[in-house]
Amino acid sequence: MAAHALRVPYFIQPTPITCQSTCLKMMAMYLEREVVLQSTGAEGIAIEQIWQEVNGGVGRPSSARNAHANFKWWLEKRFPSLSFEYIQTGAEDDAASFITKSIDARMPVLMSVSHERVAGHIILIIGYEDYLPNVSAASFRVIAHDPYGRFDPELESSLHGKKRDHGAMSLTSGSESGPGMAVHLPITSVGRRREFGGSAGKYILLIPRR
Fold first, then answer.
1. Which range of residues forms the domain containing residue 91?
2. DSSP secondary structure, 84-127, as one string
């Protein structure tokens, strides 16, 4: 089955703590270009400024640093014609269904992940391949923009962290290329695999809707 991927810009996170704001910029630029078809200033806003708004903006719903509720709030302010829904599930099949339905509706998916290299990280799902409902997910892969590089242990790569900009290039589209661009991962890699606040074994998705 052919891969199905959205044309989402990619950026490398500029600091070790800006994965969430980098993914928000990627999502916002895509929504401007492909969904609402009007500028909200996403292309011109610095990733570090998005981080400041998420963590210090007036009216944000949570005072906690990098709170998921603030990611949703930031997107809702910028895109009032869209809604954004957080979904949490412990079922792999349900997560796969949510992801594929969102991609088929031309909407990328923000996901909170964890694994042996990190207690918490944000990536952006931009596509999938080899998905058949009610069939074993062994061959199913998601396609993700990981701003920290080829970070998941499944990829067996050292191109992450300080090497996340290895071979990076600025593109004519206004985005970048890097080792974390459009990486292919099994569904098990986009869940929470480390225990933190009861989230182990959960899939946590933020999905835009028209």
1. 4-209
2. EEEEEES-HHHHHHHHHHHHHTT--EEEEEEETTEEEEEEEEEE
- Check: CB of residue 111 under 8 Å from CB of residue 205: yes
pLDDT for residue 183: 97
Residues whose CB falls within 8 Å of the CB of residue 87, separated by 6 or more in sequence, listed in order: 98, 203, 204, 205, 206, 207
Note whether 170 and 176 are within 8 A (CB).
Answer: yes
Q: What is the pLDDT of residues 72-83, one digit of tens each?
A: 999 999 999 999
DSSP state of 137: T
Rounded to the nearest 5°, which phi and psi values hold at 72? -60, -45
What is the total count of domains within the chain?
1
CATH number, position 56: 3.90.70
Give the tens place of pLDDT for each residue, 149-207.
999 999 999 999 999 999 888 887 888 999 999 999 999 999 998 876 668 789 999 99
The phi and psi torsions of 126 (rounded to 5 degrees) equal -115, -5
Burial of 156 (0-12, 13-18, 19+ CB in 10 A): exposed
Q: How many CA atoms lie within 13 A of 85 on its CB side?
A: 9
Q: Are 23 and 122 within 8 A, CB to CB? A: yes
